[in-house]
Give the backbone structure.
Amino acid sequence: MHEHNKIYPPNPEFAAQARIKSMDEYHALMNEAKEDYEGFWKKYADEKIDWLAPYDKVLDESDAPFYKWFTNGKLNVTIQCIDRHLKEKADQTAILFEGDRGDIEKISYQELSVKVNKFANLLKEKFGVKKGDRVVLYMPMIPEAAYAMLACARIGAIHSVVFGGFSAEALRDRIDDAGAKLVITADGAYRKGKPYLLKPVVDKALESGAESVEAVLVVERNRELIDWVEGRDHKYYELIEVMSPVCEPEMMDSEDPLFLLYTSGSTGKPKGVQHAQAGYILWAQMTMEWVFDIKEGDVYWCTADIGWITGHTYIVYGPLAAGTTTVMFEGVPTYPDAGRAWKMVEEHKISQFYTAPTAIRVLHTMGPDEPKKYDLSTLKVLGTVGEPIDPPAWIWYHDVVGGGRCAVVDTWWQTETGGHMISPLPGATPIKPSCATFPLPGIMAEILQRDGSPVETGETGLLCITKPWPSMIRTIWGDPERFKKSYFGDVVKDGKPVYFSGDGAMMDEDGYITITGRVDDVINVSGHRLGTAEIEAAVAEDEHIAEVAVVGKPHPIKGESIFIYVVPKEGHVNPDIKKHINTLIAQEIGNIAKADDIVEVPGLPKTRSGKIMRRILRAIAKGEEIKQDISTLEDPSIVGKIQEAVRQATQND
Ligand code: WT7
């Protein structure tokens, strides 16, 4: 038997102490949810959430697909994440920060309470931020980023974190779409031993629009020299000390928005995914307990950036709601060497480690034996997220990092789902490598065809969630029609539109689910989600380009890389085209969207109705033979010409 066909049963010692200890327990929970869906969720909502006022209905489906959970309930997620822990764990470390240069800061729950309350008062008193106002965060990975998110939540403001790798243009578009009143940023931070700057990007974003912004709050991280706009810009450390450490939490309705997070779709501009309060925090906490099996004394480290949903749910909200110690790391796991991450695991006695397959592949490639140099015996659960993980990376993670002792949980979920959906349970699930295995208890995932009928075992179909769940996306900010169309417009089951994820998946004869990847025009580069339409729009800004098509190409480390076909305008030749286009992309979107391949072609393969056949372009990028019928193309001869152009371009590289 090949290693990757092997089944890895749970470690019996771990299983004995786990929250969910066996597949029997898993099935019992799942059956409970199937028999009485609302009763299942009610039990957890009553047990886990510190309600300020009770809800009157578990699930309101009257305005589907705008589902509402725990209607009319009142709560504040910062009570869930901070206040309720103060009785028993005031002195326990809530956030364990390690800077790029090795500087360490431990913030206890008591200190976190003071930081967040002061920050909340600053937002209210100095900047007039009120419930429902939008605040954009453009922050490095420093504790103040978490304080800022929680401060917004404390007073009912809606935060929208924009990943620090996005460009000024991308930041401005997101500020404009949200109509944000305040931007919170830092002068800069440190990366690979060197300072870098963030504030200049905010300055640039505000030069060209972003009219809604009244002020910029700057956290001084590296005190590099930056430009200053008097009256608009404010220094965090000059203002924060005098603030009162007591700020009454705003009474929030279960369904009030908690945050927006912009993500790419297959068409048009990025979507402001809107999450709500009660359902989100409930599932964030429950999945910490089930999937990571968080226990007293654990030290949990997720390497994501707070600019992505993983950073929201599994660095800030989930771990703090679960009352654990969450590690925040400013740097990169390969600096100063490929042992950095493992050194941190040893030093901080990390018990759960959660990262992306790209990072695992990089660490594997750079230092296959590095983990053996450190004491990693505190590790219990290893997680992956963001993209499919290939068997060699999975097996190395399991055998070498986890010492064969730890469960590797491949967690499938999305910005829109708020939390984990399909994942092994570390104490229960016999795991097949590279397989997300089974839906979590309460999650009704099915692999369907467009008409709602199931696919055959072993066939790829559309990964759908057929019942609403508490932490689901509520709408797209300012565009409810797009919300309906994007997620509830493709698959109809029993006459009812169901949530379609955009991913393909397949189930094997044992019922295990494997995610096969996006079936729409979304590319996943190093776990970063990018829309082909957005990149095409950026490239089309170049006046010498007549047409452009962007596809993903498999990449050994990044999962996928970006491959761009451009058709120049008549007679135009640009020897620097690759550099030029990547500069444009960096300006319009950010460095994360730069292409590995850019090839000039005489035309694109189109149907007679003008539709670009991306499937053909993907196959050519991969160097595959074209098996499909090309006779329906407007000009079938174009395929050979594109293949020739790609061949020449690869030779010249
Ligand atoms: C897309 C969502 C979920 C937080 C990070 C990314 C892909 C996610 C897995 C996995 C295979 C995965 C999917 C999904 N994806 N997890 N375990 N195996 N693919 O969030 O930016 O919203 O992207 O990431 O394609 O749709 P996101």
